[in-house]
Amino acid sequence: MSIHIQNVSKAFGSFQALEDISIDIESGELIALLGPSGSGKTTLLRILAGLEGLDEGAILFDGQNITNVSPKEREVGFVFQHYALFRHMTVFDNVAYGLKVRPRKTRPSKEEIKKKVTELLALVKLDNFADRYPSQLSGGQRQRVALARALAVEPKVLLLDEPFGALDAKVRKELRRWLRKLHNEFHVTSIFVTHDQEEALDVANRIIVMNNGKIEQVGTPEEVYEHPNSPFVYDFLGNVNLFRGRLHKGKLTQGEFEIDVPTYLDSHDDAVGYVRPHDIQIEKEQLNNESVAAKIVHIHMVGPIVQIELKREDVDEYLEAEIPKEHYKQLHIKNGDTVYIRPKQLRVFIPEDYSI
Amino acid sequence: MELTLKKRKRNTIIPGFSLTLGYTMLYLSVIVLLPLSMVFFNTLSLSWSELWETIAHPRAVASYKLSFGTALAAGLINVVFGTIIAWVLVRYQFPGKRIVDGLVDLPFALPTAVAGIALATLYSPNGWIGQFFDFKIAFTPIGIVIALIFIGLPFVVRTVQPVLQNLSREIEEASASLGATRLQTFTKVIFPELLPAIITGFSLAFARSLGEYGSVVFIAGNMPMKTEITPLIIMTKLEQYDYVGATAIATVMLVTSFALLLLINIIQWYTNRKFNVQ
Amino acid sequence: MTKPLEVKQESSISIRSGATKSYALQESAFVKWSLITISLVFLSLFLILPLVSIFVTALEKGWATYVASITNPDALAAIKLTLTVVLIVVPLNAIFGIVAAWAITKFSFKGKNVLITLIDLPFAVSPVIAGLVFILLFGAQGVFGDWLFQNDIKIVFALPGIVIATMFVTFPFVARELIPLMQMQGITEEEASISLGASGWKTFFLVTLPNIKWGLLYGLILCNARTIGEFGAVSVVSGHIRGMTNTMPLHIEILYNEYQFTSAFAVASLMSILAIITIIIKNIIEWKVKDV
């Protein structure tokens, strides 16, 4: 089912939770709503489920306006961060709940319910846990029950609110992979809220980055990571080095450092250059004044990528660089060495319209 | 004791274990345990037939039925209305809510005798409320039920209220998004969550009602076989210096109360074990 | 002081009122107002009207009669006796409550749960039985009866009897407020204090007491209310001697049984005012604790 969110605004008292949000979501997409806490992502999800009303705007499911449709008629599966399982019911009864509460006319027979629940429990690999109570399950198992419960009503949209937020790192990784697999099988339009950029990049087809009740950027994981269109997205997705300098005749200067930024030929402003750690080139000799001297402070060498902390010699600032291990071995550098660093790719933003 | 004490000394640096525990045991024994044990010792001095004659006397049996029946009726009424009141106080906003919330504690704070004479006057045939009814309320079992409703209400409200307050909103939202109506959400999701608290509240109110004296004697009428509650029988026997008889009846009441106390503990233990996250 | 609470309530209203009109998440206005009405009617019939009627009946025959009723020598004697009982019972039970809570929450030992249950025991005992047990102990035919008689010590039908029976009935109040509170607070602060060199007493007064002061006060006012109002147990052991062993509730009973309704309700109104004050203090403490 496709979803159209049109000019949605929502305020809680004087707090503007959402401001004029518009997004179109295609049928079968797997979307991550990514943002810091208070960015409005959970509010948006709850509005989609009908758990929260909206002040302005409209929600369309498959072209139909469902803004005023109650949550029970939206055919939406909602998975809560803290599972919200019914603790006085067994796993089986939890999953069967959505089918049992249907009006008699549309309610499946007992046998059908049993068959369906058994199938779902097999799908989430909890076949042997049907008679357990939620308190007897681990966090990951509970979240799988919550998912099975949401899927039992055959929702047209699956909404997940920080589904893995309360789980430990290992289980989280496993469930992520499993959610993607599930989505590949069912192709139900799914939207999940997360504040974990890695999770969003790892699982989603498309990421909606939110901040302060507004959408910052929408795009595939690659797009938002490689081409952030705002300082916020740069900062929120992955590590970044800042070069706070001045723009002058198409060059960004800071200390002894100077780099061409042809897009800003006319600007004469304070500006900040954003460089990902893996876009920092380390050389042993200075080639031109696009590179600058820095002293190696710390080398962190775990896994295939070597992280290097550097202190610039011209100004009192620290930088972080990441280089592949092989490259590191060729360089023959160690703590205390002076090297020359050069940004391979740098994006400049003029800092009047944001603050970090 | 000696053994546990030594073990503790190695484990904690906080002083005063033997002093505080000793004082607690002493005070508890002198004020509560020793006096209470007198009831059982005195009962033991009776022969079985004597004991049976006293506790199975028709007047005593009638009082058990009355005390039990009225406590049960009042408890059930309080369960229904106490739960509604708790719900209203937690979920809704309305003018004067704070005052109403505070008033629920009135039966805890108001002396029972004061409540007794107020209720007796109010529900007597020409009282403010009694005049509107064709049948007698005060001086009948209905009057006793009314006094016991007064006494028991806060037990139900104050046990259900915090549970309702801490109930996560999410389970209701989950239920609604799974297609349940509000009524289904209440009966299938909310009510089962409240049930242990409701049962506990009922048991507390019931136990208190069985032994209640002050608020009941004024409104009961105290007619033997008809409106004479069990604590009143003990009182009457005492006034006639029939200590043995009073003690025998007291034994029946104590055993019942302790059984109830045990039941409450078992319910709480059971629900904790079954539903609570480790 | 109460502000945070109100802000919270307001925000929860706005969440719901701004929401789609969906009866799947909330009851309809009809259901809501029906439930509120039912609650208010029920509370009026059983709590509010009785309370109001006490004051109305007390003032029925005018202010002068009211004042005369409560300044009557027997009434004054009853008030004085009740205050005496309060002054003895409440501090003793408070000390016990603190000591018991210290033993139970600061140390671990076998049989702790049994001890907690035993402390709660008086709540499960009818007040009449609470009186009876002291007759069995100290009455003329009681265990210590002969000895007391020979040494000319009066317990039953005198102040000591009233005090000890009241102590039995109000025994658990302070302890049961403090035990859960102190259990929650744990022992780390006390351990820190003692490891810094403070004595046990210093630790108690400087660390523990400030932490439990609201819970203690809460227990104290509940204990106080019950001590003032205890009827059944005191009725058994007092002997109903006018001007001597009549507490306020017993005095009310006598007046009522002699059909002196106005006087009975006048004294009752005094006790009702105390009850209302108790409720107000209780609520203030609850707000204070919420704020912290």
Automatic annotation (TrEMBL), chain A:
GO terms for molecular function: ABC-type sulfate transporter activity; ATP binding; ATP hydrolysis activity. It comes from the Bacteria. SUPFAM superfamilies: MOP-like, P-loop containing nucleoside triphosphate hydrolases. The keyword Cell membrane applies. CDD domains: ABC_CysA_sulfate_importer (cd03296). PROSITE patterns: ABC_TRANSPORTER_1 (PS00211), ABC_TRANSPORTER_2 (PS50893). GO terms for cellular component: ATP-binding cassette (ABC) transporter complex. Residues 3-237 form the ABC transporter domain. Keywords: ATP-binding, Cell membrane, Membrane, Nucleotide-binding, Sulfate transport, Translocase, Transport. Pfam families: ABC_tran (PF00005), CysA_C_terminal (PF17850), TOBE_3 (PF12857). NCBIfam families: 3a0106s01. This is Sulfate transport system ATP-binding protein. The lineage of its organism: Bacteria, Bacillati, Bacillota, Bacilli, Bacillales.
TrEMBL record, chain B:
Belongs to the binding-protein-dependent transport system permease family. CysTW subfamily. It is found in: Membrane. The keyword DNA-binding does not apply. PANTHER family: SULFATE TRANSPORT SYSTEM PERMEASE PROTEIN, SULFATE TRANSPORT SYSTEM PERMEASE PROTEIN CYST. Residues 64-264 form the ABC transmembrane type-1 domain. GO terms for molecular function: ABC-type sulfate transporter activity. Pfam families: BPD_transp_1 (PF00528). It comes from Ureibacillus chungkukjangi. Keywords: Membrane, Sulfate transport, Transmembrane, Transmembrane helix, Transport. Part of the ABC transporter complex CysAWTP (TC 3.A.1.6.1) involved in sulfate/thiosulfate import. Probably responsible for the translocation of the substrate across the membrane. PROSITE patterns: ABC_TM1 (PS50928). One of its GO terms (cellular component) is plasma membrane. The complex is composed of two ATP-binding proteins (CysA), two transmembrane proteins (CysT and CysW) and a solute-binding protein (CysP). InterPro entries: CysT_permease (IPR011865), MetI-like (IPR000515), MetI-like_sf (IPR035906), Sulph_transpt2 (IPR005667). Its main location: membrane. SUPFAM superfamilies: MetI-like. The chain crosses the membrane at residues 21-48, 68-90, 102-123, 135-157, 243-270. It is a multi-pass membrane protein. The keyword Magnesium does not apply. This is Sulfate transport system permease protein CysT.
UniProtKB/TrEMBL annotation, chain C:
It is found in: Cell inner membrane. One of its GO terms (cellular component) is plasma membrane. GO terms for molecular function: ABC-type sulfate transporter activity. It comes from the Bacteria. Keywords: Cell inner membrane, Cell membrane, Membrane, Sulfate transport, Transmembrane, Transmembrane helix, Transport. PROSITE patterns: ABC_TM1. Pfam families: BPD_transp_1 (PF00528). Part of the ABC transporter complex CysAWTP (TC 3.A.1.6.1) involved in sulfate/thiosulfate import. Probably responsible for the translocation of the substrate across the membrane. The complex is composed of two ATP-binding proteins (CysA), two transmembrane proteins (CysT and CysW) and a solute-binding protein (CysP). This is Sulfate transport system permease protein CysW. It comes from Ureibacillus chungkukjangi. The lineage of its organism: Bacteria, Bacillati, Bacillota, Bacilli, Bacillales.
